[in-house]
Write a structure and sequence with these properties.
Strand order of the largest sheet: 2-1-3-5-4
Number of strands: 5
Strand content: 5-15%
Number of helices: 22
Length: about 550
């Protein structure tokens, strides 16, 4: 293909992809807790505070921070939207590196197909507009593999430089470093100066990451400190976030001592693998699920792709997935899987190439038929992406407004600690950041740590980990929990956390120790339906001995 044609098709792909991405976002609606945290830390950096967060790296917030100078507003959402626009822009820019990476495996025509898969994938489009760190992480991970697959070994230095940048973006970057090391030695084992070059690569990597590691050592006494690294082995998702578990040192051996090796293997291996597979199937809709099984099969007998390159692609996928297995056993966070999508898309492009190049059975395509077939496939993918994008739940300004109003009323009426059992208290953050106007401009890094838990007001949200009702009441009393908030939709994703509270909303009369203090239905809310109860500990113990 001529360069003009390639440029034309890439621009066309950019434009269609941008349309999908913009469709998924409402810039007037509040984001998730993660986005709030990234933007608050970015503001803190502009205030001169580069303290390390115990649960996040600073890479994405540092990238956001200079762009915030473009905004001067007392509305925090305006600053959040900078992160959203930046995420969308990075996602669009990433299409070209994806094309370059695909060129290591295919010719121009199929590389454009791979770029289309990447650009039109509805989950990635939805992710790009959230203000998350994933878009820039995906961009850098694409560049990392692209550099390491270059025939010129000196490009490996760039690869280890980019993987260091990757670690600044997310903690999982260290996993890609391990994969990169394996790829480096397997693909260059005949080079006589391989070990010396690797030492130089290591040197580049360490020089890049040492400021972060030294900073964390000074702040936490451990360069690799991560606040959620041990609580995951408690084996319950709420334990990762609960206030009563944050200072617990709980290791894999502790879990084995209490539950046995069989339960450990089931939870952190078997269940982890199962959750990853289920998540991957769900995330593969609407079109990757058609190509991926054949791509996996055809990649085992590759004759159109460089075997070293294909092996490298598999190494990234397998090592990344392997590093997630234990975590998915407790918390199946589908967002963690998006980082391998570029490499899955490489696999998905292989069957498309095989079918068009070699035909089906005795049937073979003419050159015109090949081109028409590819155009048809891309057209179907665009259609499926559009239809699937429509299925994503659109941001609802009315619902968002009612959640904020709900939080404002609770803040005025209630005094004490409150537990959220079902996605009801995000509005507390809006209240915090809006009162007084512009107060968020004085943010410090530590502010995002307790974004939901320390509202700076009379009403404070906390999380409690407990396995039974009795244990819950005992722990709640110890932590002075006063209120519990429930959503009409039940506990939803929270149900594994609080199964003993699952039917409170629908059957409040069964729980005589809970006194209702607010009901949005009585306040005639149209879309947001929640109830808040005050715990009567004395009555609970009277009723339960």
């Amino acid at each position: 293909m001529q360069k003009k044609q390639i440029v034309f098709y890439l621009i066309l792909i950019f434009c269609i992809s941008l349309g999908f991405k913009l469709y998924t976002v409402d810039f007037s609606v509040s984001p998730t807790e993660d986005t709030y945290g990234y933007v608050l830390r970015a503001i803190a950096h502009n205030n001169g505070d580069f303290s390390e967060s115990p649960r996040k790296t600073l890479g994405w917030s540092i990238v956001i921070s200079p762009f915030l100078h473009l905004v001067d507003s007392n509305n925090f959402i305006d600053y959040v939207n900078v992160a959203r626009y930046l995420g969308i822009a990075i996602s669009i820019i990433s299409i070209y590196p994806m094309y370059l990476l695909a060129r290591k495996f295919f010719d121009d025509k199929y590389s454009l197909c791979a770029s289309s898969f990447f650009a039109f994938e509805p989950h990635l489009n939805h992710l790009s507009s959230g203000g998350y760190s994933e878009p820039i992480y995906i961009l850098v991970i694409i560049l990392t593999l692209f550099f390491i697959l270059n025939k010129n070994l000196n490009y490996s230095y760039l690869s280890f430089f980019s993987v260091a940048v990757l670690w600044y973006m997310r903690w999982s970057g260290i996993v890609i470093f391990a994969a990169l090391t394996v790829i480096f030695f397997l693909n260059n084992k005949k080079n006589s100066k391989l070990f010396l070059k690797y030492l130089l690569c290591i040197g580049i990597f360490l020089v890049m990451v040492s400021p972060m590691l030294l900073h964390r050592y000074e702040q936490f006494g451990d360069p690799l400190y991560f606040s959620q690294s041990s609580t995951v082995f408690i084996g319950n998702p709420i334990a990762i976030l609960a206030d009563n578990t944050q200072h617990i040192e709980y290791s894999a051996s502790d879990y084995i001592d209490e539950n046995g090796i069989t339960k450990f293997l089931y939870t952190f291996v078997t269940l982890g693998i199962y959750n990853i597979l289920v998540s991957m199937v769900k995330l593969s809709f609407p079109f990757l699920i058609v190509f991926l099984p054949f791509g996996i099969l055809f990649s085992l007998r590759a004759f159109d792709q460089d075997k070293n390159y294909l092996r490298s692609n598999w190494i990234i996928i397998l090592i990344t997935i392997a590093s997630m297995v234990y975590y998915f056993g407790v918390w199946p966070d589908k967002r963690l899987l998006f980082q391998i999508f570029p490499f899955l898309i490489i696999l998905c492009t292989i069957p498309l190439q095989r079918i068009v190049t070699y035909g089906l059975g005795t049937f073979s395509f003419s050159e015109k038929q090949k081109n028409l077939f590819l155009v048809g496939v891309i057209a179907i993918i665009i259609l499926l992406s559009g239809l699937f994008t429509l299925r994503f739940e659109s941001p609802d300004p009315v619902l968002d407004s009612e959640k904020t109003e709900f939080a404002e009323i609770l803040t005025e009426k209630l005094d004490g600690k409150i537990l959220d059992t079902g996605d009801t208290l995000q509005g507390l953050v809006n209240v915090k950041l809006a009162n007084p106007p512009g107060v968020f401009k004085n943010a410090i890094v530590n502010q995002d740590i307790n974004l939901f838990h320390d509202s700076g007001q009379k009403l404070v949200a906390i999380n409690i980990y407990a396995t039974t009702m009795d244990d819950f009441i005992k722990t709640s009393k110890e932590y002075d929990l006063k209120y519990i908030s429930f959503n009409q939709n039940g506990l939803g994703d929270f149900e594994p956390w609080y199964p003993y509270l699952a039917d409170v909303y629908e059957n409040e009369n069964k729980y005589n120790f809970l006194k209702k203090v607010f009901d949005t239905n009585e306040a005639e809310y149209t879309k947001f339906h929640a109830k808040v109860f005050e715990i009567d500990y004395k009555k609970f113990y009277e009723l339960n001995g």
